[in-house]
Backbone:
């Protein structure tokens, strides 16, 4: 199969018929063998009923329904598991991503041999203050920390070689950082394509300001996991050593001062408490490093979700 389209959604019943008709027209015009995997992330409207009706109308449509809302990352992860196409393309269901981008994304993966192609919504129709400015700050910080030169990490329109989506796990709210996760997994040929950003036609945005706070915390988490998940002692041991040496050095200074001048108080000086605190922190960091080395970072239930129903799978 040429293409798997993975589309997570939450309360998008209005947009689904138009979106699926548009996708089908584009892929059929280009003679792509394809499947459309719609993941209903616990919608409380009639999105699932619409998906079931569309699956009768279009043989290529497959559906997954979560029992409750788990988030976009969970939906993408389940879609990636189910995808069988040589090229996997993700897009949002709100009609702000254009299916007309599909042929060029497919070409960049198959002909230009990129492992990942990320969309860049260079011209946006979102609120400047509420979304555009925070997004620029967020993307700038992410580029600086990860070294991946993308302008729009959070764009939902992306394309992957199948081996990429099968070789990574997406959980929590890590969908913003799939290129980062893929890089740490060894997939480093990342491309970027300017894509059309369309004004919202149906519904309202599902994301607020909190996504930028969560995004920053996720960035710190994924950066740490990517660099030190296999060697936590390299991080905790380094800082533990520095704190412990600082504590010991201060203690030696205090002891020497006491020897040279017996009238000098030892325990009433601020340096005594700094030495004690630094030494304790150093030991604790060392212990954290040892425990980190012993504990596997993979939780068996990390990507286990209650799926209520499936269609076509």
Residues:
């Amino acid at each position: 199969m040429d293409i798997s389209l993975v589309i997570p959604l939450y309360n998008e019943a209005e947009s689904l018929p138009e979106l699926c008709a548009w996708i089908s027209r584009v892929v059929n015009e280009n003679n792509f063998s394809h499947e459309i995997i719609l993941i209903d992330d616990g919608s409380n409207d009639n999105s699932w009923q619409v998906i079931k009706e569309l699956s009768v109308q279009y043989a290529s449509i497959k559906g997954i329904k979560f029992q409750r809302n788990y988030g976009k990352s969970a939906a993408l992860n389940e879609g990636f598991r189910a995808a069988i196409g040589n090229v996997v393309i993700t897009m949002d269901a709100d009609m702000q991503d254009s299916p007309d981008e599909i042929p060029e994304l497919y070409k960049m993966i198959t002909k230009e041999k990129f492992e990942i192609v990320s969309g860049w919504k260079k011209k946006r129709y979102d609120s400047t203050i509420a979304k555009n400015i925070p997004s620029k700050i967020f993307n700038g910080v992410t580029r600086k920390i990860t070294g991946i030169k993308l302008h729009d990490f959070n764009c939902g329109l992306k394309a992957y070689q199948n081996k990429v989506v099968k070789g990574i796990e997406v959980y929590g709210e890590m969908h913003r950082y799939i290129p980062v996760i893929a890089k740490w997994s060894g997939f480093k040929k990342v491309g970027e394509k300017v894509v059309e950003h369309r004004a919202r036609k149906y519904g309202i945005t599902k994301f607020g300001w909190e996504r930028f706070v969560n995004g920053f915390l996720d960035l710190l988490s994924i950066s740490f996991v990517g660099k030190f998940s296999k060697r936590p002692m390299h991080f905790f041991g380094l800082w533990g050593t520095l704190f412990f040496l600082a504590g010991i050095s201060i203690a030696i200074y205090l002891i020497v001062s006491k020897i040279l001048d017996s009238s000098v108080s030892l325990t009433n000086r601020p340096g005594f408490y700094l030495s004690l605190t630094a030494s304790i922190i150093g030991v604790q960091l060392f212990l954290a490093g040892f425990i980190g080395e012993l504990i596997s970072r993979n939780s068996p239930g990390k990507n286990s979700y209650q799926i209520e129903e499936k269609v076509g799978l």
Summary: The domain at 3-229+302-311 is CATH 3.90.550.10 (Spore Coat Polysaccharide Biosynthesis Protein SpsA; Chain A). Residues 59 and 312 are 8 Å apart (CA to CA). The first helix runs from residue 16 to 29.
